Amino acid sequence: MTFTRMTASELGEKLAAKEISSVEVTKAHLDRIEAVDGDIHAFLHVSASALSTAADVDSRRLAGEAMGPLAGVPIAIKDVLCTHDMPSTAGSRMLEGWTPPYDATVVRKLREAHLVPLGKTNMDEFAMGSSTEHSAFGPTHNPWDLERIPGGSGGGSAAAVAAFEAPLALGSDTGGSIRQPAAVTGSVGVKPTYGGVSRYGAIALASSLDQVGPVTRTVLDAALLHDVIGGHDPRDSTSLRDEWPVFADAARAGRDGRSLKGTRIGVVKELNGEGFQAGVRSRFAEALDIMSAAGAEIVEVSAPNFEYAIAAYYLILPAEASSNLAKFDSVRFGLRVNPAGGGTVEDVMAATREAGFGDEVKRRIILGTYALSAGYYDAYYGSAQKVRTLIQRDFDAAFEKVDVLVSPSAPTTAFKLGEKLDDPLAMYLNDITTIPANLAGVPGMGLPMGLAPEDGLPTGMQIMAPARADARLYSVGGALEALLEDSWGHTMISQAPALEPTEMFAARGGEV
Amino acid sequence: MAKPELMDYDKAIELFEPVLGFEVHVELNTRSKMFSDAPNPAHPDFHVAEANTQITPVDLGLPGSLPVVNEEAIKYSISLGLALGCSIAPSSRFARKNYFYPDLAKNYQISQFDEPIAFDGNVEVELADGRTFQIPIERAHMEEDAGKLTHVGGATGRIQGAEYSLVDYNRAGVPLVEIVTNIIYGAEGDAPELAKAYVSAIRDIVVSLGISEARMERGNLRCDANISLSPRGSGKLGTRTETKNVNSLRSVERAIRYEIQRQAAILAGGGTIIQETRHWHEDTGRTSAGRPKSDADDYRYFPEPDLLPVEPSTQLIEELRAALPEPPAVRHRRLKESWGFTDLEFQDVVNSGLLVEVEATVTAGASAQQARKWWTGEIARLANAAGEDAATLVSPQQVANLVALIDDGTLTDRLARQVLEGVIAGEGTPAEVVESRGLAVVSDDTALIAAIDDALASQPDVLAKIRDGKVQAAGAVIGAVMKAMRGQADAARVRELVLERANA
Question: What span, in angstroms and rounded, lies between the C-alpha atoms of A445 and A437?
Fold first, then answer.
């Protein structure tokens, strides 16, 4: 098996056994990127130092240094995360070419665990979008069908993993930006409990909703990566001080046991049915049957306030974003546009923001500014916060009855590039399944649920657990993944198109 | 701009009732900043620094950076709240105040809005004639300071007319407590003095707590004074102005007085007061119009999602309450009484900022009058000449030792001044300087008598006059003796001995 087809856990074991070297593995992935990323465009930047980092890890290992289970394994990093040695643009012209003077805490933890950063992945500008079409640097294409979107905002990370350009990636999830791309690319993505992973160095979209999490091809790999990046960070006041269990243990126990005996699984009535694609619904029903056959108790639960989740989300998110994005004013970093004929500092700020932000970003800044304005605050932001509380109560009530909640990760399979670009509302509705978890701060996982019969494209299952019970995602997810693969006789991702090397890319001299 | 006409002050007070309100910003002297681990320039160790060197990604508002609350600043704020007689909120919250300005790194200021850490307090201030006045405190809340802009190229140093501006973010993130009063009625003609006394009381409180350097000229303590005039008998509040840039206690008094006279002239002339910020100019003694300010300014406040609510335990609050020093107003009354000072004498000490030094000197054994005299007199003069703080020149113990040498007759005041110079020059303790410079009063009569006999012998005409009863002639001899003794003699004793020897 080629290195790029192996899972991170397999690579980690072979690296630990010194059967293979990190340089070989890293080289294989860089070659794969060079071969296919011209078509996929998952990467905005490929690291020039990946091979030397890999060589360093190899020599440390040979010198007997103790290393974690993912040491030497390459990883792609969403461009929303600050890296001191690579540009960090968050998909925006505003930050084109900007290299931060510091690493995000999660990036520091990757380096300390000796993972090998391959590069930075494409995303909707400032993580605003569900298709990666709002990147200022061009869209990412879905490896299953290059005409289709890879989801968003983290389409780059999901596509990189699904196209075997990286075994692991980091994403960020504000309203589904990890789980929805996972669904439409056939990968696994986890949004941890709010506060479970540090946000320090993650360029903020909506501070009360953002969470960094793993993007992988297997549940176990997600758990291994979560183990590396999780835990308290004194630089993030909202990070939890909990002692976390080893998530990889939970994932292994789930996978090896293949049993869901006694597990109470709640099907959220409001997150299924009307508006959901037929193939998504049939695959979801099959997955429920398989879980039931494995001993799970399937219960329908109602979360009546989920109906208002999107409305509340699209007030809270723009409100926080309008404030978070105010710092992009050309004074201290990033783009500066001087208006013709000069002007005051306000003129320069205005010209810069006019030129530097894309339409979707402007739309949300205007929306958020309005929602926070005097006289409207109570009606909009205030009401949205009340809805948020009601949604948290719906979750609390549901988790009184069940251990985990499930729904499809996304209502449809991947739509075509350009299809919803002119219809923001349709684009927003794509996140209907994932947004409630962000509003409540509870953890959610998206994992492959099978291909939709009508279009042969991936569908995803979402599992949600109570806050702080992330381990439950890995045990249930590990079991479901194994049961589904047993029923199919193969992994879902193995059915993805092989992708031919692109000549277009080779001509670009490695610059991506 | 033509100089606005001012109404005579007494006339203004006759026609209008001044209504006051103050916002005092106190820079806390914690070692690090409010939300980052950068050195805090409001701490004396970090006061001097190159521009933009006391910064971290947080202070620059770099993408991805997050604030973390300085727990020491929380404790200081609670102590201040308690000293202002406020209730401490069991849960208070930071909020974002959104506005664009290049000195504000994130284009929002982390402040507190509807949930301040301290509220509903009261500060007693004393006027020079001993009357006391209660100033109601609405709230004290925590926030971060902004950076500092320097406008280059214009004649005035203001933004208008400048070619370009420089921004220094060292001050960005300095911890501030903003103390806001309720509307203050009834100050009447005392309004200017009351304003000064209030800011002075706040300064005394933060100094006694040790939570701020409280140096107005450095901006550690800044007062924004709101003032409006209510026409007598109208029962209506007037439009207010907010005067900023008031950098000394004296300026507070002058600025309020000026605004009362300016507003009165406009109102009496049928004009209207514009609600605006006004800048105080120390040099001209005037205020000038700044930014128009309306109650409708929309800062789009919302709870800061990057920070958790501040929830101090009851135990912490009670510990801080128990550790509060004696309130400055109470302390002042106690010291003034025990030292037997007049109002003027005591105010002299307070105004010189040397109360702590005088008290320590008294504790070290000096009389209160001597301690006052030396600190506010010779030491303050030398400090002023050297451009340094009096407190840094010499210690209270050294001053007490000096006074003891005067009291036991070893030194005259004149000699003591020379000894003081030696002590300040680092030559040792007063006793050591007396020894090394040979400055003690010559108390050995034998040496004095020898010198007197020499002087009388060389001035027989003077001797004759003295013997004739013309006692005032002795002055010439006394002068000669003092000169011979290089000043180190007690002139009174020399006079006694001269008369004795002349008539012997």
Answer: 10
